[in-house]
């Protein structure tokens, strides 16, 4: 399972100026310091996707099977809420880096928090271990996700022509981790138990942290710069707000307002409120020009379509996992493939096809489809991927051929490459100069919202009657895409010269 909203993020690249020079070419022609960020990011993705590959089945498998015996729809909702919280945490991680610690330090501390989360999942029993582990991994992953690309960007001078190749290499590391994580944890889970799988995720993160702790001193000083330091007289206020927020969450949990069964809905509501507030603040600001305001309005339909896309795409960790457990024939010459290995199919296609897409867009140049058109095509392809489940829907246990799910996930990847790398780029191009970071935050909010909805939608999935689920969601995604395609010209006019 890949994460191209993270992989393709180049936002930090333009904001910082490397102080390493262009002479260092020791890491495949790139600065040697890239190896350290490459390593910690690869192992972080290994641990993240390795853990997520077995997370849902850990929750709904029976206690006799080594799981927690949670109701399947509730478990899927928790997975969605957790995924949404990861993306919500990117905003917190970016703020801490910008105002308090700088990107490099936040990256380092986030890696420690992630490792602690995986250790909690591996060692702490029952629901407490699950809760503590998921909270730590979500907050840590958000902090690392928000700052890793910024640190990579700090390795290059603005005029360094190696920048795009460096980010491509970084991107490769992410996908290598995403591929091997579910393979290792799934093999351990199916042979010696879930907690061994979570332990492998902790070890992987530990290896990345160990390597990075030795190499972080070689990173440029600019990676530790705090761009907009919080005044000393306001720090106590921030600490008070943070403490009050944590206390409020604890009280709401103890009072039963926040429960496992409504967690996804709460994350959805919080994300919607945050997105509306962000749009309102930007659009009503007197600091932006009429052209900039028009571009922000143009981002709204892209935001909506992106939410729709992620609400289907992220079901790889909810409905597709359940489907693979119950419907997929995973028997290969008498050996049964672990469920989580299905999550390693997507990264293979991403590694193969991302270069192909980049070459095609480069070849087409100004003739390539506009951003709204790419979004529309991505949404329609994603809808088609859900419709491809229909020939095998309502089948007997283990009746879907493995090649069928491979083909469906290939279509998932095609949709991803039309939308995900383009989406973050669009947020940086359409964002007003004064609100550049907030527009990137808005993009991540759309991913958070879609991911949370993916968990919430899983409650409507009925393995005994799958046709309505795949048909309705596939049709909605296709209709969303068609609507944006029809509105592409008006949206382009609002974009005021940006394509």
From TrEMBL:
SUPFAM superfamilies for the chain: MFS general substrate transporter (SSF103473)
Major facilitator superfamily (MFS) profile domain location: 37-492
InterPro entries documented for this protein: Dipep/tripep_permease (IPR005279), MFS_dom (IPR020846), MFS_trans_sf (IPR036259), MFS_Transporters (IPR050171), POT_fam (IPR000109), PTR2_symporter_CS (IPR018456)
Pfam family, one: PTR2
Key words, A-Z: Cell membrane, Membrane, Transmembrane, Transmembrane helix, Transport
Membrane-spanning ranges: 46-63, 75-97, 106-128, 168-188, 194-215, 236-258, 264-284, 296-313, 333-361, 373-393, 399-419, 440-461, 467-487
Membrane topology, from the record: Multi-pass membrane protein
Compositional bias per record (Basic and acidic residues), positions renumbered to this chain: 1-10
Protein's cellular compartments: Cell membrane; Membrane
Region of interest: Disordered: 1-22
NCBIfam families noted in UniProt: yjdL_sub1_fam (TIGR00924)
Family: Belongs to the major facilitator superfamily. Proton-dependent oligopeptide transporter (POT/PTR) (TC 2.A.17) family.
PANTHER family: PROTON-DEPENDENT OLIGOPEPTIDE FAMILY TRANSPORT PROTEIN, RESISTANCE PROTEIN MDTM, PUTATIVE-RELATED-RELATED
This protein's name: Peptide MFS transporter
